[in-house]
């Protein structure tokens, strides 16, 4: 079993935290190799400082798009291009985004299903979301999917398994509300290629010391024990 990529999001309640750049060293020292953020919560100059800090720390960098409408989503995408992110996660205006990303090296992981509200909610039936995922994964220029699995009101483990099977040749990142051990385990066991954690760690949700290093260490332990149990 290949361990999924742990993407630590420097975000709380879908907003990048104000001191995000100051936390990069702590996150990297804790062993995280992939760091993400959103373009909401900091001015662009602050995002530039953050992106430089992540790049200098030698981590991969993701921007997750949670904009509510087409124009704000495209502004977010342009910000990601200007910041030189490695991955663009989320968003729903796929045709427009693909045109903007053409010629860049950015790997694009849009949201499958119907996304509504802020914080985002995944709507639709399980079958509809799986069909959406398969259709998106078949698009040239779409490198994977950003699945808001725990923002779905149905059988989440079943949804994750079905989406991962439906897009077997494209990686699926599970994002949103992974705030307890069983959810991280379920994502890993479903075949997710990655998962994000942000708010839960900042809120001290995991059974470890409430500081960021302690929370990240606990998440890594949860992941490693899950992998060992399947070895």
UniProtKB/TrEMBL annotation:
Descriptive protein name: 4-hydroxythreonine-4-phosphate dehydrogenase
Top-level division of the source organism's lineage: Bacteria
Origin species: Gluconacetobacter dulcium
């Amino acid at each position: 079993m290949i361990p999924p990529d742990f993407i630590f999001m420097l975000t709380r309640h879908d907003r990048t935290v104000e001191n995000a750049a100051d936390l990069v060293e702590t996150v990297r020292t804790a062993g995280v190799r992939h760091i993400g953020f959103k373009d909401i919560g900091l001015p662009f100059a602050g995002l530039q400082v953050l992106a430089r800090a992540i790049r200098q720390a030698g981590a991969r960098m993701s921007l997750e798009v949670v904009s509510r409408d087409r124009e704000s989503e495209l502004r977010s995408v342009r910000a990601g291009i200007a910041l030189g992110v490695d991955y663009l996660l989320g968003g729903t205006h796929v045709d427009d985004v693909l045109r903007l990303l053409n010629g860049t090296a950015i790997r694009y992981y849009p949201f499958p299903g119907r996304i509504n509200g802020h914080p985002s909610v995944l709507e639709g039936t399980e079958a509809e979301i799986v069909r959406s995922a398969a259709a998106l994964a078949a698009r040239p220029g779409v490198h994977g999917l950003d699945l808001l699995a725990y923002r779905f009101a149905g059988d989440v483990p079943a949804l994750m398994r079905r989406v991962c099977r439906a897009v077997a040749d494209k990686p699926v990142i599970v994002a949103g509300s992974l705030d307890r051990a069983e959810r991280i385990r379920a994502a890993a066991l479903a075949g997710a290629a990655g998962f994000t954690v942000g708010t839960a760690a900042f809120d001290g949700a995991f059974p470890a010391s409430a500081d960021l290093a302690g929370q990240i260490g606990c998440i890594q332990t949860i992941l490693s024990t899950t992998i060992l149990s399947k070895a």
